[in-house]
């Protein structure tokens, strides 16, 4: 009786492992989960993909919030971001307190209507009342270099398929 339970448990564990391996190798269920949901997603994997948010598939936009955006640049250029990438102030990236790394976000300047799509690769901002810190490249696109801040709307951009490599 005691050995029967162990054989059943061992059989169950082996069956579970085989099922997991077959699903992972086909990628049918788990494809894309790592970059979408893991906030500690490997920076090497993120850098290799460096995917573009735009493709021909239908997009799903989700409003994240509205508030004040700022930018950060010179003193952080070349330093390591929270996800392990090297910060390049000229790329279209941003820091957000909670969105998963690799998330693509459309940032719209509420005053001018200009928008820019950035990829979250860092944590911040660390100033009360701000919802996102943009790279200087993104700040240029929004036209906020002179003012330093702007009221913005944030929308995540997603699609049903894995994004194509570009950028």
TrEMBL record:
Q: Which family is this sequence assigned to?
A: Belongs to the RlpA family.
Is Cell wall biogenesis/degradation among this UniProt entry's keywords? yes
Q: Which gene encodes it?
A: rlpA
EC class name: lyase
> What's the protein called, per UniProt?
Probable endolytic peptidoglycan transglycosylase RlpA
Q: Which GO terms describe its molecular function?
A: lytic endotransglycosylase activity
**Organism field:** Chlorobium ferrooxidans DSM 13031
Instruction: Please give the PANTHER family that the UniProt record associates with this protein.
Output: ENDOLYTIC PEPTIDOGLYCAN TRANSGLYCOSYLASE RLPA (PTHR34183:SF1)
Q: Which Pfam families match?
A: DPBB_1
Entry-linked CDD domains: DPBB_RlpA-like
Its job:
Lytic transglycosylase with a strong preference for naked glycan strands that lack stem peptides.
NCBIfam families, alphabetized: rlpA (TIGR00413)
Record key words, sorted: Cell wall biogenesis/degradation, Lipoprotein, Lyase
Domain RlpA-like protein double-psi beta-barrel positions: 66-153
Enzyme nomenclature, EC number: 4.2.2.-
The record's annotation in InterPro entries points to:
RlpA (IPR034718), RlpA-like_DPBB (IPR009009), RlpA-like_sf (IPR036908), RplA (IPR012997)
Set out the biological process GO terms recorded for this chain's protein. Answer: cell wall organization; peptidoglycan metabolic process
Q: Which Gene3D superfamilies match?
A: RlpA-like domain (2.40.40.10)
User: Does the entry feature the keyword Cell wall biogenesis/degradation, yes or no?
Assistant: yes
């Amino acid at each position: 009786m005691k050995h029967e339970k162990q054989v059943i448990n061992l059989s169950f564990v082996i069956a579970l492992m085989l099922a997991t391996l077959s699903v992972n190798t086909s990628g049918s269920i788990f494809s894309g989960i790592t970059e979408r949901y893991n906030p500690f997603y490997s920076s090497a994997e993120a850098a290799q993909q460096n995917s573009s948010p735009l493709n021909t598939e239908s997009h799903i936009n989700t409003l994240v919030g509205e508030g004040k955006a700022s930018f950060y640049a010179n003193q952080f250029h070349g330093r390591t971001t929270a996800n392990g990438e090297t910060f390049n102030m000229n790329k279209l990236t941003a820091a957000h307190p909670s969105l998963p790394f690799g998330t693509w976000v459309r940032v719209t300047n509420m005053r001018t209507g200009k928008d820019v799509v950035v990829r979250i690769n860092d944590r911040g901002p660390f100033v009360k009342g701000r919802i996102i810190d943009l790279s200087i490249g993104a700040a240029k696109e929004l036209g906020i270099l002179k003012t330093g801040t702007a009221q913005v709307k944030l929308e995540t951009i997603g699609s049903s398929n894995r994004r194509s490599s570009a950028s």
